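Reviewers of the previous submission asked for a worked example of the structure-prediction workflow described in the proposal, so we include one complete record here. The input consisted solely of the amino acid sequence. No template or homolog information was supplied to the procedure at any stage.
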Amino acid sequence: MIDLHTHSTFSDGALIPAELARRARVAGYKALAVTDHVDLSTLEHVISNVRRLAANYSAHMDIDIIPGCEITHVPPPLIPETIRLAREAGAEIVVVHGETVVEPVARGTNLAAIEGGADVLAHPGLLTPQDAALAAERGVLLEITTRKGHSLTNGRVAALAREHGATLVINNDAHAPGDLIGPELRKAVALGAGLSDEEYLRAEANSRDFLSRLNAAGRAAVTLD
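From that input alone, the workflow returned the following structure tokens.
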């Protein structure tokens, strides 16, 4: 298993990054992205420290730690520039906190994330067909989330991704140890969202493909065999 969306004590997670990585490994994960919530006031501090963890701990912990961030509640006009700055700061994956129905996310966030070149649009809420089509065109990954509340609109995200050919990934959005769920529950969430068995397997493979692309670009990686 791979998870591209998790949180540590650098934002609102319960675990320091090292314990998050260790618990993920024991839960069966071979790779995870540490993607704490950031805005322009915290971006450089969070990413630089997670990069230090990834560089020094991945090989010793037998898990590939991907340093990243989740751009959260940033005004939509500023999202593209924030994505650019996150990459310059060393984020290897940039997630944007999408328009979940359980938080007051500004309208237009989904579109700004896609147009700005985010890697993952997290919990997109009431995703529009137009945004789903643009995500497919731009190669932005759409998230099926296992997190309570955010998962309420998984069915819509799955249906629009299928209709428009967008790429799905399954993420835990983990904030605490119990959020690092196993393969059976990950599959149950995916099937509950309306994915077929084949689509579920493809979604899991999409995360592996993303990591493979990062590794092909020159990252030092733990083997996924």
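The chain has one domain: 2-216. We consider this example representative of the routine output the project will generate in years two and three.
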